[in-house]
């Protein structure tokens, strides 16, 4: 038996609190060099995990709660966890042009919008 990971309503609420960018904002961001410059990559030239996540988030944002798949819900939980963990590691100083902010934005969260 696995631990409870929250029902659909809870995951939906947590996801929409963590993701504070719109699908169009994320889509536009993912086209930037800054977006592609950050994150873990499996090899040179590969897409980063966060950039891939951003594309998945755009797809999920286009769905109704009733249309979410099990995989969507799992990804939504992953996004919430990432935003919480990475968000807690805020660096000192100006974050506007920081890799930390860029990484969070790949996951649909712009810390400057808080």
Shape: globular
- How many beta-strand segments? 0
Question: What is the CA-based Rg, rounded?
Answer: 14 Å
Mean pLDDT: 92
Low-confidence stretches: none
- Helix coverage percent: 40-55%
Main β-sheet description: none
Order of helices and strands: HHHHHH
How many structural domains in the coordinates?
1
Terminal CA distance: 37 Å
Structural class: mainly alpha
The number of helical segments is 6
- What percentage of the residues does DSSP assign to strands (E)? under 5%
Account of the protein in words:
With 114 residues, the protein is mainly α. It has one domain. It is 54% helix and 0% strand. The protein has six helices and no strands. Helix 2 runs antiparallel to helix 4 and helix 4 crosses helix 5.
Summarize the structure.
The chain is mostly helical and 114 residues long. It contains 6 helices and no strands. Helix content is 54%, strand content 0%.
């Amino acid at each position: 038996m696995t631990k409870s990971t929250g029902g659909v309503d809870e995951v939906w609420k947590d996801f929409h609190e963590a993701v504070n960018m719109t699908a169009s904002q994320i889509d536009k961001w993912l086209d930037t060099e800054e977006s592609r410059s950050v994150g873990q990559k499996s090899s040179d030239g590969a897409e980063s995990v966060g950039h891939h996540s951003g594309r998945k988030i755009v797809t999920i944002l286009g769905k109704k709660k009733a249309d979410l798949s099990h995989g969507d819900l799992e990804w939504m939980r992953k996004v919430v966890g990432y935003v919480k963990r990475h968000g807690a590691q805020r660096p000192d100083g100006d974050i506007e042009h920081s890799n930390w902010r860029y990484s969070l934005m790949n996951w649909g969260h712009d810390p400057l919008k808080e």
